[in-house]
Amino acid sequence: MTTAEDEHGNVTRADIEAKFREIQGDIEETAESAKGMAVAIGVAVAVVIVLGVFLLGRRKGRKKTTMIEVRRL
Fold first, then answer.
1. Which residues of 36-73 are buried (b: 16+ CB within 10 A; e: fewer)?
2. Would you give the DSSP letter of residue 69?
3. Predicted pLDDT of residue 1
4. What is the enclosing helix (H) or strand (E) of 33?
5. How many other CB atoms are there within 10 angstroms of residue 15's CB atom?
6. What would the pLDDT profile of 8-38 be if each residue is shown by its tens digit?
């Protein structure tokens, strides 16, 4: 007889609930570690996007800038 079976060989509700809590605990631990990694990756992607937009806007601004030369006579 194992702990997952009663004296008749049937699985009890308490056994199912215990196993569910065990699995749920493992899932929560995995989710917490993945959450930290996802936040770090999200921040890195946001920084790259902002930097890319800044550089592209700066380049476009230089191309369209009109140069005015002032000469005194």
1. eeeeeeeeeeeeeeeeeeeeeeeeeeeeeeeeeeeeee
2. -
3. 44
4. helix 13-64
5. 15
6. 678 888 889 999 998 988 888 888 888 888 9
